[in-house]
Amino acid sequence: FTLAVTKPTHAGLGGGGVCVIRDNVNKRNDVLSFPALVPQGAGGADRGKVPVPGNPRGFAVLHARLGSLKWGQVVQPAENLARFGGIVSRAFAMDLRQQAGRLAGLPDAVALFRKAGTPNLAKEGDRMDRLRIAGVLGRLRVRGVGDFYQGQLARDFVDDANSQGGALTIEDMRAYLPEVRPAITLPYIERTQFLFPSPPVLGGALAADLSGILVQSKYFELDGADRTHVFAEATLAAQARRTDWLRRDGLVTQPAYYLVDADRHAMIASALDEDRHAQRPPAGDAAIPLPPGADATGIVAIDQFGSAVACTVSMNGAFGSGKVAPSLGLLLARPSGKDSLPPVTATPLLLVGEARVKKDEERVFMAATVTGGPGATEALADLALRVSGGGQGLESVLAGPRLYYAEGTDALVIEPGLPKDQQAALRARGHTLHPGASGVRINAIYCDSGVPNENQACAAFADPRGFGLGAVGDR
């Protein structure tokens, strides 16, 4: 709820998202999916241009499952920030600068983000109050999330949405329910498992499949150019074998267990040539283009009792549709189909398993999210395996150069920081390098000995390419 005030670019109340959840009390690993969905008409076509928001009810379900504070205590800090004004962060100020051209044609949206007491768009360090959304949050705090979906707040939202091109009814709001389903579970080393969002969330399927190939290749045990070469080859192999389980329309055709089949992944990994660039990008019918990613942001948390959550949330584009619910003062999400939210490039991940000493005790070791554009799946898999399996530090891997094969091409995109000797070695093996900046952002927590643990040691970092926040608190 605080992000709806401080970073509504991606995390407004009108949006939706997905979480991977580890409930260590009840020993459950689940996916909580709450996309912002445009209602479907009788013929299956979208009805109107405003989706039903998923975030309020989605996070209410998350609170009901894992929360320890009272509901009002969860919502009130965000309400106070909106009512009394909060300082504009560097991250949100950058969003405003990057979207300034688009916002210039959206006066209602600009009015939400002015410096307090002025007509000017807020800058970093300015105070910005959001009185209308403070009222919404106050009603959520007092009346609960039910008011947003079946009470007066729901009616107000329907009226506002329909004045902006929507065709919602109060029945649409009442009928909206988040979905809880099992996570994709990828067996890993030392009786641990990676958890990914299950289909129809495409990002989770992509990350599970690539991670499985990389696990079988043992690339994270290699060094320098050997590691980067095998990693690059594995990413191309994953692209080429995507037709095994994915249709051109984005429908996942295989069950979750197929995406974590160790024998299949071992067969693909065994075909990787460690000495030369032999994999080729898929072409023709074998090339399945991915839908474009939308802007999103990620949240990760691990508590001292071994429960954890990793969530990505989105407005289906920066500032959503740019339209504003007039009386409520909140941005409306961009229209999106069921399978395209969360964005394909936004993926949460957890690493859980048995304690390395007490074999009967389950712990959580990692929580991470990735957002951004091309190379997101590759960056998430690379970080997760190099930190947990290769023994490298979380902060150094986050800051290190990234690389990925651009979809459907033989161009290996590398960040300029990749060491010159590794670049030369990659060229010598036949790779064609193309320098480019990474738009990918990862937030992650890693606990080497797992949690719960009397001597737990965790590190939490936000991607240095952005301006997020990572912190480890006292027990």
Summarize this entry quickly.
The chain has 475 residues and is an alpha+beta fold. Helices cover 33% and strands 20% of the residues. The chain is built from 17 helices and 18 strands.
The 3D shape can be described as: globular
Largest sheet at a glance?
6 strands, antiparallel
- Low-confidence segments, given as residue ranges, are none
What is the top-level CATH class of the largest domain? Mainly Alpha
Mean pLDDT: 89
CATH architecture verdict of the largest domain: Orthogonal Bundle
Structural class: alpha+beta
Task: Kindly estimate the percentage of residues that lie in beta strands according to DSSP.
Answer: 15-25%
Number of domains: 2
Tell me the quaternary state: single chain
**How many individual β-strands?**
18
CATH superfamily of the largest domain: Gamma-glutamyltranspeptidase, large (L) subunit, C-terminal domain
CATH topology of the largest domain: Serum Albumin, Chain A, Domain 1
Number of helices: 17
The proportion of residues forming helix, as a percent range, comes to 25-40%
Describe this structure in words.
The chain has 475 residues and is of the alpha+beta class. The protein folds into 2 domains: 2-181 and 320-336, no CATH class; 182-291 and 347-462, Serum Albumin, Chain A, Domain 1, CATH 1.10.246.130. The chain is 33% helix and 20% strand. The chain has helices at 2-6, 8-11, 55-66, 71-84, 90-98, 100-103, 107-112, 131-143, 146-150, 152-162, 170-175, 202-217, 224-240, 262-270, 376-388, 394-399, 420-428; strands at 16-23, 28-34, 86-87, 127-128, 179-182, 184-187, 192-196, 296-302, 308-314, 324-325, 330-331, 347-354, 362-371, 403-405, 411-414, 432-435, 441-451, 458-462. A 6-stranded antiparallel β-sheet has the order 6-7-12-13-17-18. The longest helix is centred in the middle third of the chain and has 17 residues, at 224-240. The mean pLDDT is 89.
